[in-house]
Amino acid sequence: MAKLSSLRDIKFFEFHENRLPAVEQQLLTVLFPCQVDPAEEPWLLRMGTLRGWAVLLPLLGLGTAEDFPWTKNNPGSFYYGTFPADAHTKTSLGGKCWSNSLVFPPGFLWGVGSSAYQTEGAWDKDGKGPSIWDAFTHRKGKVFRNETGDSACDGYYRVKDDIQLLKELKVNHYLLSISWPRIMPTGIKAEQLNEKGIQFYNDTINSLLENNITPIVSLYHWDLPQVLQEKYGGWQNISMINYFNDYANLCFEKFGDRVKHWITFSNPWAVAENGYETGEHAPGLKLGGCGAYKAAHHIIKTHAKVWHSYNNTWRREQQGMVGISLTSGWGEPVDPHSQADRDAAERYIQFHLGWFANPIYRGDYPEVMKNYVGRKSAQQGLGTSRLPTFSVQEKTYIKGTSDFLGIGHFTTRYVLQKNFPFLQVSGYHTDRDLAELVDPNWPAPGPKWLYSVPWGFRRLLNFIKTQYGNPLIYVTENGVSEAAQCTELCDEGRIQYLKGYINEILKALNDGVNVKGYTAWSLLDKFEWNKGFSEKFGLYHIDFKNKNKPRYPKASADYYKKIISANGFPNPREVENWYRKAMDSCSSTHHLLAADSLITHMEMVTEIVLPTVFTLCILICIVLLIFYLRNHT
């Protein structure tokens, strides 16, 4: 039986290293159920006997944190099986059953995603206005190696090429975002529309549909028009609600006849916390303990207004859905039998996921969030809480404004109680009174923040089921990056990550969680915000040194394609065969990349070195000619 003997067996994870002081060493024991080695039991036996724990709650109605089985966790099993195409079965999703409960149901959606600023480039072309990320990256010292997304993946010019990659993967859907300043340069509809930008997205959507790929469109993946930031202070200003609503209605008008899945905001937690408290992301503001809460408050109100606009004006005609995409890690109590640690783990999730999900599904911020921020605000001598409040009318208006819940998830933390001393300037991270830890045995294929902990995903999905009445869920972001400086096409770590996390979705489905689709993040290596191009999430590698920015499939692309084609994991032997073929294919691609790199190098020599040498030769000849003429006059 695996266990962690003490805190010395766990790494303390500090999201901001200067904010979380060391936690006193204390002995504790964390027990896990016995893990099952898939190689030790026959497949048919596993199919019949390995069952995950299930949350025995009604599928309708909202639960509380106490309803969640914190002490039950089974991270060791693996589910095999695919849905037989010719079987006579009862199929459905979200509370009903299909006959083989260890397989993905028919109609389960598979896709990949990206965002506008990270991939499109063409930052000032064809009438596009500047975004806050254009301004942020153009200031020195804000991004790793001062890199920018000015050209990014050149996705603006490579739509057909990238759709061909989607066809190769055999995905059902593609999650993309629209750049607000590309279609509305100042962010204000009454001032200017950019018809070339509108046409670009029309062409993109049409091309996807022509290739039987469903577009799932996010209205906002962080690229606020810079004019709105300069004039009004961006999401600190309540006027953003109406400006964004105008923009959303323009998108519904121009694209809604073909787009049936809309996301209002992608990961608004990062917009608020990283943009307006830590300043690590655009617009780069550090507004103490109020900035993030105020930005989030306006974003939640904006989301609700857009949902009502669609519901009242467009839904009957267009028959689409509007949701929001929330990204959250899972917080597991260090000692699940400790009430203090369970409470800390709940705060971790409520301050992250619940911050946005609770108002939408329950009508208000989580009680624990209101209590903790309110108490800390009072300790600071503030007359009111730094966490804003919703009026009774606003609570009613916001509650129920999501046709589906998009979930982004990347990793897990162990969490325990940690009381922070009184601080005159408190903020989001100290408001929570907790410390985050990681197990050093967890795989970390890429950067230090992203550990591969698949079982946390199932826990998160079941928590959502318990807390929010089992809503319709689309997994909108899930993936892992590489931090290696050298090109890594044989990305074994990503293969294992995808295999583990997708299998946990299968277990969650068997628990009755209403998951409809999965989006791998991401299609391409791309610009990763303040990390520049140093982290690589793509299933496809891009050679950014080559002016043509060619795309090369990694081993994970081939592996993911097999999962999609099989609609799951058929049996251990076939899944292992997928792995071998994927690793073989990446070796061949490496040879192609090496050859192309040599050609690129030769082209550089031809285009730069040779003209330079030729120019020097001419200059030398001129100098020699001058000396010759002087000596003969």
Automatic annotation (TrEMBL):
GO biological process annotation, one example: carbohydrate catabolic process
Residue numbers annotated as active site: E477 (nucleophile)
Reaction it catalyzes: a beta-D-xylosyl-(1<->1')-N-acylsphing-4-enine + cholesterol = cholesteryl 3-beta-D-xyloside + an N-acylsphing-4-enine; a beta-D-galactosyl-(1<->1')-N-acylsphing-4-enine + H2O = an N-acylsphing-4-enine + D-galactose; beta-D-glucosyl-(1<->1)-sphing-4-enine + H2O = sphing-4-enine + D-glucose; a beta-D-glucosyl-(1<->1')-N-acylsphing-4-enine + H2O = an N-acylsphing-4-enine + D-glucose
Alphabetic keyword roster: Glycosidase, Hydrolase, Membrane, Transmembrane, Transmembrane helix
Enzyme class: hydrolase
One Gene Ontology molecular-function label: galactosylceramidase activity
Annotated InterPro entries: GH, GH_1_N_CS, Glyco_hydro_1, Glyco_hydro_1_AS
Superkingdom classification of source: Eukaryota
UniProt-listed Enzyme Commission number(s): 3.2.1.21, 3.2.1.45, 3.2.1.46
Similarity annotation: Belongs to the glycosyl hydrolase 1 family. Klotho subfamily.
Protein name: Cytosolic beta-glucosidase
Lineage per the UniProt record: Eukaryota, Metazoa, Chordata, Craniata, Vertebrata
